[in-house]
TrEMBL record:
Protein family: Belongs to the small heat shock protein (HSP20) family.
Residue ranges of domain SHSP in the record: 28-141
Coiled-coil blocks: none
Record-given protein name: SHSP domain-containing protein
InterPro entries per record: A-crystallin/Hsp20_dom (IPR002068), HSP20-like_chaperone (IPR008978)
Organism field: Lentibacillus halophilus
Amino acid sequence: MDPFQQMTDWRRNMDHFFGEQFWNEFEHIVKPTIPAINMYQYDHEIICIASMPGLRDLNKIDIYVDHATLELKGAIDIAYTGGTVIKDEILQGVFEREVTLPFPVRKDKVHANYRNGLLIIHLHRLISEETNRSKVSIQLDDDD
């Protein structure tokens, strides 16, 4: 009997017993999140490098920036067919990853490049030209 089929049957039985949402709480422990990300902070910039092997269609990846949040959505699909899988360590599948940035970034100045299986996202610090400064009035208290 195929050991992977036994795992699938076991998982299906556990889903039936506990409910399908039960495993969502443990998924990050059992399976690391994808894509794997390295992030580098500079004075006014952030470089985010995401591992995305086998990406052929750049339209299958969505990048969103909102204030101090970077969100990546898409799918990693190596799509190698033929033969029997004997080792399966490269993480793939549909993903939705949200990363908190160390500071707010500009939405109008985000650059993304894909090279050698890496998605490189260059973000620039938001330095607001508007000021929230307001004058505070001082009241004189009488000593009476």
